[in-house]
Amino acid sequence: MAGWVARNCAQSLGVGGFITSNISNTVDYITSPTTDLTQQLYPEDTTFFTVTVSGVTEDDLDYPGDYDPVTGAVLYDAIHGALQASQFGSSLWNHFSSAASLFSSHYVSMTRGGGQSWYGPTQETALDEMAYECDAKLGNPREVDCSQLLYSQLGNSSEIIEVEPGSVFFVQQSTCMVAISSIAYVALTWGMIVPYVRTLVEYCAENPLWDSVGGQAFFSSVPSLVGIGGRRKKSRRKRDDTGLEALPHGVNITLFGQLEDFINATAELETCTWQNASGGKDVRSCPVPHHRRPTI
Length: 296
Known about the structure:
The longest helix is centred in the middle third of the chain and has 17 residues, at 91-107. The radius of gyration is 22 Å and the shape is globular. It contains 9 helices and 10 strands. Helices cover 32% and strands 18% of the residues. It is an alpha+beta fold.
């Protein structure tokens, strides 16, 4: 194992590296329905080990298998897969939903060389950057519709909305649609959400540098958690939003062009536009309903 790291990292790239073995032991344990994930110590037969090749240092070397976000991603993905395979609302789903929330809080706080491990407790991190990505594949919501959405469709600042994994909260004004999703259960106030929706609309739908397009807003530390990827991004910017109430990690706000009105959130989940928006495909390829003229 050390030889593999030496060849592929030290010799080929001139950097150190690490390799883990038997991480499937841990995956099998944490995805068992009977495992109590609140315990501090795991049984010895559920552990994995790490071989590290690094330069000589006077500092104590943490075990990268415990602290590197790659490990956190593997374990979170295993829990998330178990959650998706469970029946929504069942006791098993509730178990893995809690587990996903726990492991996501660890994963999103992990940085290479940092002090957050894949197991608890979760360290407080400074969430000082919000990423906004505009993408033409998310369609062309009309600027006037998005302005009207900001004016009339968003709730009072103290009003609470709840979002669970597998569910999406939609807000629509004609061609302008906003979707709020999360990898774990969250309760958010509109006071927390509105500033990000407003910035997303201003940056993507009302930007004088290009025609109105859709986009996403999320904390930049873990963009892979939003679950909507694989698209070519038109533009991206980051900004300091520490003055706002922070959105939890794993919450994603998506702005996209909608071609028809929807009856309810369940119906919207089945539309071509949302299927394409959430699946990394082009919203503009969806058929335009006969009762509405296409946007020019």
